[in-house]
Specification:
Elements: E1 4-9, E2 15-22, E3 24-29, E4 34-42, E5 44-48, E6 51-55, E7 60-63, E8 69-73, E9 79-86, H1 92-95, E10 107-108, H2 111-121, H3 130-147, H4 159-171, H5 179-186, H6 190-201, H7 205-222, H8 227-233, H9 239-250, H10 254-260, E11 261-262
Parallel strand pairs: 1-11
Antiparallel strand pairs: 1-2, 2-9, 3-8, 4-7, 4-9, 5-6, 5-8, 7-10
Helix pairs in contact: 2-3, 4-5, 4-7, 7-8, 7-9, 8-9
Length: 271
Amino acid sequence: MHVNGRVTTAAGPHKRFEAAFSGKAFAPHRHDTYTFALTLQGVQSFDYRGACRHSLPGELVVLHPDELHDGQAGTEDGFCYRGINIAPTDLLDPLNGRALPFIQGGRTRDKELITLVVDLVRDLSTPLDPLHWQNALADLTEALCALDSGGNLTRQPDAAAVVAARDYIEAHLIDPIQMEDLEQVTGVSRWQLSRDFRAVLGTSPYRYVTLRRLDRAKACIFRGLSLAETAYACGFSDQAHLTRQFKATLGLTPKAWWKIIDTRTHGTIIQ
């Protein structure tokens, strides 16, 4: 798929970015982070939970982890947005046992939540201060829970077991991983663990493995490894397997993804 656009990443470890596209931006895909995307220009359109949504300048797109979505320009002029991806694990402590909140329709005009996101993505040229980040996570969590339309679990998920399973996965990414392994590590049945994993991290153990392998694959591509070398280093059976998973998960082939990525720090500041 030909993609006409660019993505510019921010300074620092947090996944902040600015993106601009015209036409079709992304094929249907999922990721296991929350995505907060503030529309700056144009109309940001996306199919999400059975309907086509539209975000106008000043509105905020909030995509829940592991929800299928795509992206395209709502007008011929294209669109631009600035955003941040936040892993559910970053919200573990401020959620304090609550299930991940869900924002109905994938977009909001809530002033409090928009103000918090603007504060995080205002200046992409400077890494976020650690104290700023921790305070923002607490405030974001409360703002999301206040808007939550998904309801909470009647049983509190076993967050400790989920964290143990996550740590095992990340330590064995290039190895075959089975639910029996996670049962042994956590002492929790695979069925309960699968439910709790989704409640705490927003996705299944299988999807988590795939996405972490793709994170590693993107880092390998950045370092200049070939796709065949990347597949071998990241636990994929071959280059074709890597490409299929890349496209299915991120909505782009590795080559199309690399073409739109601009790793230079963005120097502008939202006024």
